[in-house]
Design brief:
This protein is 25% helix and 29% strand. It is α+β, with helices and mostly antiparallel strands. 38% of the residues are buried. InterPro entries: AP_endonuc_1, Endo/exonu/phosph_ase_sf, Endo/exonuclease/phosphatase.
């Protein structure tokens, strides 16, 4: 049996300066969901897609804030970036893809700050959007930085500061998508935290991945992993699927691109621009 290896990581701003460290840290992953990525530069996209086995999709935030990206193996088929409401852009991205004829719905979010009006409005919009997703036959993967918890077990202080209304809206989304918290599925009472504040007085498990209930029995591994360039831990999920040969995810030149005139011109212009910047 093969597995899908998924990572979710809040990188704490600017994918353009961190993407090589991200790929180096998680090079075995088939899917990498990133949050707080800012604005993805075209040169970063070109480098990733020319030198690795990933394609990258983004919903940009501002220069140094918000933003979500997904790196997905080129072995996935029929990848579609779905249109989402304008109010969700910069905080939400939705990809649809196929593996072995099975359709997957991949959702990656970066929620606004906890207990704020923007967070309430964000989850209200997402609750409406969830109604559009086919949860009966497709596999739903819902990950990211949720900036909230729904249980006191996920707080170091044993307190949940999230308001009741936001929790109710969030639980409605989970119900509509028919998904489960993958870490809690395998670790019912374990206390682990994905984010800790600077003085270590507060810690919560706000970074999670949810999965369609009917496939949770295929979960092989759930693990939180420190990432040196963020105050958030990454979350690793591995799911058993059928028999599929994945390509490598790390530094693989797609030589066919060198035969494309537009692509080579784009690379040539990028290096000229980069060289001028270095000489300033």
């Amino acid at each position: 049996m093969s597995t899908i290896h998924i990572i979710s990581q809040n990188i704490r701003k600017n994918i353009n300066t961190k993407y090589k460290d991200i790929i180096n840290s998680y090079q075995d992953a088939n899917i990498i969901c990133l949050q707080e990525t800012g604005v993805l530069k075209r040169s970063t996209q070109i480098d990733i897609e020319a030198t690795t086995n990933y394609k990258i999709y983004s919903s940009d935030g501002e220069n140094m804030a918000r933003g979500v990206c997904i790196l997905i193996s080129k072995d996935a088929k029929e990848i579609i970036k779905k249109q989402v409401p304008a109010t969700l852009k910069g905080n939400f991205i939705h990809l649809e893809f196929k593996i072995e004829s099975k359709k997957y719905q991949l959702l990656n979010i970066y929620s606004p700050k906890n207990n704020t009006r923007p967070q309430t409005e964000f989850y209200e919009q997402l609750d409406k959007y969830a109604e559009l997703i086919n949860v009966k036959t497709d596999v739903v993967i819902f990950g990211g930085d949720f900036n909230l918890i729904t249980s006191e077990r996920d707080s170091k202080t044993g307190k949940n500061k999230t308001g009741r209304r936001i929790i109710d809206i969030f639980n409605s989304i989970i119900s509509k998508l028919n998904i489960k918290d993958t870490y809690r599925y395998r670790n019912k009472n374990t206390r682990v935290y994905s984010w800790t504040n600077s003085d270590n007085s507060s810690a919560t498990r706000i970074n999670r991945i949810y999965l369609s209930k009917y496939i949770c029995n295929k979960i092989k591994e759930t693990l939180y992993i420190p990432f040196a360039r963020s105050d958030h831990k990454g979350y690793k999920l591995r799911i058993l699927i059928g028999y599929i040969k994945w390509g490598t995810g790390f530094w693989k030149l797609n030589e066919s691109l060198l035969q494309q005139k537009k692509y080579t011109e784009l690379i040539r212009n990028f290096w000229k621009s980069w060289g001028k910047e270095k000489l300033k």
